[in-house]
Structures are given as C-alpha cells and as structure tokens.
C-alpha cells in the first residue's frame, strides 16, 4: 500500500500482519508463548530457529566454515531459495525499532509494539514460568512484590530482571547450603550431648 506507515510511494514489501490482544478479556495463551518468543515480540521466527541468512539464499544445515560454506561434500540444500524474499517476512520490526513491514493497516493506531513495551515484555531465556507464583502465588512472593512495587524497584527491562533472578538464585543457594551446614552442626551437637549424658 503506497505511503503506508512511512514506507514511501512503493509501500512496504511484505505481508500485512494483524495485531492480536491477548490481555483484553482473559489469558488467551501461555505467558511464555509471548514473553519468550521472538515472533511475538516482532523480531520474526529467524532468531529462534537460528536462521540468519536471507531466505533468497539456499539453506544448508550442516558443518560450516567461518564464511558459511558447507564443509561436507555430501551436504545438501534443505530449504530451496525463495526469490525476492531477502529477509524473514515474519519479522515486523528490528531490535532498534526500525519497522520492516505493515502491521494492521485496517486498525487505526495499530503497528509493531513500541520499543519500551518490547524491552519490558522480552523475557526470553529468563524462564517466565516462574511467574506462576510471582507476584501473587503465595504470601511470601506477594509481600515481596508489593514492597518492591511500593519502592519502585520492580524490574522493567531484561537486564534488571536477569539481575533480580541471579540474586534470587544466589540467595536460595546460600540459604540452602547454610541451612544444611547448620542442620548438620545442630545434629552433631545433639548427638554429642546425648553421648555425654549416657556416659
């Protein structure tokens, strides 16, 4: 469509993606299917599949040289090239916010997720399944979440979230090791007291 979303007279080369609204009425899909998906974030399926070459080049999945040439002589093309498809057409936006193709031209104000939203939403490799108990799965996590929210310390970006998860894992590991050490110490002390009383 000419002039659509700042593309100029030639329009956007690609398909017209239709936006979805998973949070309007209720939970429409698993949290991880959006928060841990490059496609849902707008970056396309190429990132998750490890496809970094353009689609108009033949795809060979085998041992490769640093330049990308297949090493085995018996290597065969797994995916034939698609003429004109110079990039992943499931991608609608780049990481730095450059729009690649039209998104929902029939909905007023629709488009790719804004940069700030994508940064808050991106939880790939951070295990969003933890949020079955966070923030309100039990009293302890609910209390910690409310304290963090009141102090303005809830993590908004991926780096802050990863830092929090790292701190939680370290705290849990230290607590379990220390707990085991003190339990062994207590058991040893109790055994020593029992032996002294018997003699």
Report a brief summary of the structure.
The protein is mainly α.
Keywords:
mainly alpha, 199 residues, 6 helices
What does this structure look like?
It is a single chain. The protein is mainly alpha-helical and 199 residues long. It has a domain at 133-199. It contains 6 helices and no strands. The chain is elongated. The model has no long low-confidence stretch (mean pLDDT 78).
Rg from Cα: 26 Å
Low-confidence stretches: none
Strand tally = 0
Number of helices: 6
Order of helices and strands: HHHHHH
Proportion of residues in extended strands: under 5%
Quick one: overall form? elongated
Mean pLDDT: 78
Topology:
Elements: H1 32-35, H2 38-41, H3 46-49, H4 115-121, H5 139-151, H6 158-198
């Amino acid at each position: 469509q000419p002039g659509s979303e700042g593309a100029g007279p030639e329009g956007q080369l690609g398909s017209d993606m239709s936006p979805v609204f998973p949070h309007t009425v209720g939970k429409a899909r698993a949290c991880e299917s959006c928060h841990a998906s490059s496609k849902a974030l707008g970056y396309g399926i190429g990132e998750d599949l490890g496809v970094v070459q353009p689609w108009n080049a033949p795809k060979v999945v085998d041992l490769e040289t640093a330049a990308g040439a297949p090493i085995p002589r018996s290597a065969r093309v797994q995916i034939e090239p698609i003429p004109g498809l110079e990039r992943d057409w499931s991608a609608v936006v780049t990481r730095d916010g450059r729009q690649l193709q039209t998104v929902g031209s029939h909905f007023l104000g629709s488009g790719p997720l804004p940069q700030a939203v994508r940064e808050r939403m991106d939880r790939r490799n951070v295990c969003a399944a933890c949020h079955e108990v966070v923030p309100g799965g039990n009293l302890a996590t609910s209390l910690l979440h409310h304290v963090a929210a009141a102090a303005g310390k809830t993590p908004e970006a991926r780096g802050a979230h990863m830092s929090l998860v790292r701190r939680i894992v370290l705290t849990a590991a230290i607590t379990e090791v220390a707990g085991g050490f003190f339990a062994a110490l207590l058991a040893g002390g109790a055994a020593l007291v029992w032996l002294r009383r018997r003699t």
